[in-house]
Amino acid sequence: MRIAQVPPLYEAVPPRLYGGTERVVAHLTDALVDLGHEVTLFASAEAKTKADLVVVRDQAIRLDPAPLKSDLAAHIAMLAEVRRRADEFDVIHFHTDMIHFPLFEDMAEKTLTTLHGRLDLKDLPGVYRRWPQFPLVSISDSQRAPLPFANWAGTVLHGMCAGIYEYHPKSEGYLAFLGRISPEKGPERAIAIAKRMGRRLKIAAKVDAADREYFHTVVEPLLDHPLVEFVGEIGDAEKSAFLGGADALLFPIAWPEPFGLVMIEAMACGTPVIAYQWGSVPEVIEEGVTGFIVDDEDEAVEALRRLPDLSRQAVRERFEIRFSAHAMARRYEDLYARLDEAARPPRLTLAQSA
Amino acid sequence: MRIAQVPPLYEAVPPRLYGGTERVVAHLTDALVDLGHEVTLFASAEAKTKADLVVVRDQAIRLDPAPLKSDLAAHIAMLAEVRRRADEFDVIHFHTDMIHFPLFEDMAEKTLTTLHGRLDLKDLPGVYRRWPQFPLVSISDSQRAPLPFANWAGTVLHGMCAGIYEYHPKSEGYLAFLGRISPEKGPERAIAIAKRMGRRLKIAAKVDAADREYFHTVVEPLLDHPLVEFVGEIGDAEKSAFLGGADALLFPIAWPEPFGLVMIEAMACGTPVIAYQWGSVPEVIEEGVTGFIVDDEDEAVEALRRLPDLSRQAVRERFEIRFSAHAMARRYEDLYARLDEAARPPRLTLAQSA
């Protein structure tokens, strides 16, 4: 099929450091090319891709040092270019929330829109009610809860290219926390759990400007402890070693996480996940196989005791089956085919036309 | 005429404190009603207007305490509602930058779009080149400089309802600075000018989160001086007294100000303006009548010496002629009529059809 991929323009595709949406689109795009599709990626110039690249901005917005820029104008200009070339594609796959709806109304049936963010925002129901013709994809079933009436075509769990994560058959005796430092990600809970068990904890985390006060008042005072090591922000190159060396990833969230990429990144390294039961967690973690799902600190401590029951090899295997980029691309392929089927005029058989 | 006014949804219409665009739209809307037009205002529920109000959000986005909301979704939903009712209007007047372009392509000829912000942003030329069919209004000629190729229908300088500002025939012996505390507004230059002349300076200003560091490091150390009084943020009710009591408003900007509402608010009170020559300033200030246009501190000091040459009554008169809401509404009326004329099928006379 001829497929267009349209990610947002905030980060490079794939991102240099953080940035979930652009990372998933990068892996999906390459996997679709590997499956034999003709894929076109609309992105900023830094993109690294196996697909045909259409450069729609000289650089990603967040990497661009220009002081005066317009997110909205950049995205609208990109979408106008996609529309100008729409005839070249069988399917146009958007990852841009709802901003493309007004421009693609007359061809909604050949679009697919994956929603990557949380959906419990006040202004969203009005928009998804007004444009019910756009088929939507959720990245977990739980993500859909605030918009049950929307035009859901399917759920496709994220996948990542297996090759960039190294499987670690043996861990090195520490627990890992990886993510933004923010109340919803729960770093202080990870620290409490590690201390109760007397286990080492390594924290690799970015501190956004918005979370700096929380970091200084809540988290920083807890870091001065012999069991806790704060390693700062890490890039893709260091992730495998950091996650693969851990006995387990702690994911003590307290918000409706739409997916949680770091869980599958840990699994790719063979590292099980101990996660709080919120959002996508029960759909991503297979209890007693790839990790444990817990409700509080006591249960997390109990889960840590049961860690030796899990096989790191089984964790990696489950990643490959469920969360490789190939697996994700296969699921999207099914959805694209269904769109294509629905768009084609029905073929009349002799019996029907008689 | 049947006219729709479509301001952004960030602030109330009119705003409770700051917010230029929503304030201008509020005054324009009422003045158009006074001129006998059938006006419909699309806005959040707090709006106070003489027009028919279509409520498109329960409250303005910045006043809304809900932690999870989407600016983009709120605006797109509003625009969809405007489009649903588009047949009810002869002219639809947008104040929403370019976000409505995709939704109103098929009726661009009956829309007018006033651009309220600075236009030297990196991503704008691409958008205004792609949608050349939308007639645009600049709020000063100088504002157009970065987009000379755009489809400019005219320049309409802002106006304000004369009734809400009280004319002060006598001032009270101080200089005034009113605006955001930010490097581009130049509060430190205002302080330097006042100190050189040994004149009292009152500063009424808002400090945004983004400008707090600049305030603490650059401005705050200068405030501890017997000539300088910092009165904080003031509302509409206090503005007349604050501006009307001043010998002059100092407007020592250093950026391409697209308009600068505070200049005409001062004039409405009879207070002349000493402004640095940037952006709209030469179009708003009449040199030697409503104030002085200067290039540096020396010239500002010289202008202060010449202040007694100016007549406060003449300043107020020039405001009424050039910057009342009525004057602004008349200018927009002309532009609406031209749109309407252009949209109507040409009438064939006998001579032409023969």
From TrEMBL, chains A, B:
Residues annotated as domain Glycosyl transferase family: 169-308
Domain Glycosyltransferase subfamily 4-like N-terminal: 18-125
GO molecular function: glycosyltransferase activity
A Pfam family that the UniProt record links to this protein: Glyco_transf_4
Keywords: Transferase
Protein name (record): Glycosyl transferase
